[in-house]
Amino acid sequence: MVRAACHYDVPLSPGYTSTPMSDTSTSDQGVRAPADLNPRTEPALDFPDADFGAMTPADYDSIGFLGGLEVHQQLLTRSKLFCRCPAGRTAHTHDAEVLRHMRPTLSELGEYDGTALMEFKTRKDIVYRLERSSVCTYEIDDTPPFEIDDDAVRIAIELAALLNLNLVSELHVMRKQYLDGSIPTGFQRTAMVGLDGAIPFVVPELGVSRDLRIRQLSLEEDSCREVSDVGHRITFKTDRLGMPLSEAVTEPELLTPLEMQAAGRLLAVVARATKKIRRGAGAARQDVNVSIAGGRRVEIKGVHYHRRLPQLVHIEAFRQLNLLRVRAELRRRGMTKEMLAIPAVGVPWEVSPLVADVTRLLSGAKVQAMREAAERGDTACAVRLPGFSGLLAHKTQPGVNFAQEFSERVRVIACPEHAPFMTHSDAESGLRADEWREIRQQVGAERDDAIVIVWAPRDDAATAAREILIRAQDALAGVPAETRQARRDGTTGFERILPGADRMYPDTDTPPLPIADTVVKRIRAHLPETPWAREARYVTLGLEEDLARRLVRSPWADLFDAVNPPATLAGRTATTILERLSYHSRRAGSRPIVEPTRVTAIVQAIAGGEVRVEAFARMIDAITTEPDTPVQAILDRYRKRDNDDEALRDAIDTAVTGARTLRGHEPDPSLRWAMGQVMASLLGRVDPHRVRTMLREHLAGVTPEAA
Predict the structure, then answer these.
(1) Is the dihedral of CA 265, 270, 273, 279 positive or negative?
(2) How does DSSP assign 154-223, residue by residue?
(3) CA pair distance 63, 661, nearest whole angstrom
């Protein structure tokens, strides 16, 4: 196996400091105001925390909820976007590893992006595992980009046209800086395809009937797949790297969590209409943006499932509300950023009275994790947070308190390898009362002050102390501009500082690509049917509006179109396909493949009177679970026969005899039991209404035998 080490060592400017980039104030340093503030500036601090499902649209309006989506979708091309390596290949082995370290670069305005500075502080060893058949020298930045993939451009134009966007006349490739290691070059190449569009957004059950405005659609290259992230070492696979990816961004106009879910599903259906996108795990991902009154946009990354989205953004909204409550209390206590300041250089416990080295207390602690840290030779430091007493225990998410905002920042940026690595004065700490008194004296803590203790290797402990104070300063701003990770329980965790415009700059390696009018005209002439047009067509076939909408958004719409049932069976066909195939998908964990010709044969047999419609669901089950059984053999089980009347009389006699053995049953349950017995063998061959009438007559004089 080959190992290579490559370094991007662009030095930081002499004026670099660790000043937090997320303060919403513009008066302290004269910096430009953030563009991602919620338009409503007064938070609803008195609004009580509520569970998802207990909130009405008016309640979400009361807290100033706003949401938007960034939907990423892999495009179905043969090649990657800027090289000719195959797209869609999954590598299970690797042939080489490349080690890199990233450093931030100045933007064209001479500024550093806050996210880039944050990633630099992590001091990560970034390892890329390369498999020779899925990557080339372009992916590791040893070769300039090839011409942009033509198929990807055409698919992106088609998507933009379906979203009614204004198409650009030339593609201009930009570089978007990423120093988290997910892209070996340190930047992602991306090009704007269309701007300022709108599509119909009609969700009757939510009372929504308006346009969904689309801000933009861009074409970009996908990132690596993360394999592991432990301490200061993160490992990626590069097979997915560089695959063509579209990104559709909505305007921040979604007013409830359920509206966000509906909008995400609508955009997914629009993308699927092209039949030129990849499906499966990881092929589609969405980032959700949330803010409430008094706060600012927070981005939650990598939400893979629409069903989890509403609860996730609901919890995030109330996390922000609780952060704003913390801010209000800190302001009431007279706290300022200057009270939490730390010199830009030097070891924190040597240059700041807010930090003290308390390593000697580890070995005698009651908590085993502290004693193990002492055995490893870790450094422990205590950080005083003036005016924070009692606030670290304040609940921010279900099962999560404000202290976790600090521990997450430490985990991501200081990268301690062992957990737990932090405790604080508002919790059971594992230290004796006399030890706490000594610590409070060392850092000069007063009654209203909180203390956070963190332990890690010396350099990591120094980074952690600074990040704790930076996060405390952010608390005075309320809601930091962050990118957060979605967790399965609906809570979120810190991932990185939210990137800004400073990370974007032109790509000088890629010339502009003119988009010919003839190409656009040809694409527009062959656009697929839009979901809203398809829904209207289904309604004209006789489907109820709700059923038509469900069918359009399901994976079975193409099957329904291929079967092309007569109008008299359209609704029954749609309902049966949706219910039964969805059931089998859930049961098997994968979508069943059903040949349209087999369903067509069933529909034709029902329409021709060979089989009664009551057997429809049972026959769909059969062709799904018995793919090798000829459809005619399945139909034969349910076709009408010449001796059906005689078979019916025999079945009724048997059922009535059985009913006599039932004990303690009322007439209606007896009738239902008898119906099940008769129809089990005659489903599709006899009229169930006739069977029910005959059974009722026979059972009318039947009295259950005495015990």
Answers:
(1) negative
(2) HHHHHHHHHTTPEEPSEE-EEEEE--SSSSTTSEEEEEEEEEEEEEEEEEGGGTEEEEEEEEEEEEEE--
(3) 63
CA distance 62 to 292: 9
Whether the CB-CB separation of 102 and 94 falls below 8 Å is answered with no
Helix/strand/coil (H, E, C) string of 424-476? ECCCCCCCCHHHHHHHHHHHCCCCCCEEEEEEECHHHHHHHHHHHHHHHHHHH
Helices and strands (H and E) in the chain: how many: 21, 24
Digit-coded pLDDT (tens) for 495-517: 988 876 667 788 989 999 999 99
CB 630 within 8 A of CB 676: no
Distance CA 219, CA 191 (A): 5
Give the residue among 43, 41, 17 at the shortest CA–CA distance from 29: 17
Dist CA 521 CA 374 (whole Å): 70
Statement: residue 12 has pLDDT above 70: no
Sheet of strand 450-456: strand arrangement? 355-357, 379-385, 450-456, 422-424
Cα separation, 577 vs 588, whole angstroms: 16
d(C-alpha 19, C-alpha 343), whole Å: 10
Alpha carbons 59 and 457: distance in angstroms, whole number: 47
Q: What does the pLDDT look like over 30-49, one tens digit per residue?
A: 444 466 899 999 999 999 99
d(CA 325, CA 302): 28
Average pLDDT over residues 364-385: 91
Q: Are 373 and 422 in contact (CB under 8 A)?
A: no
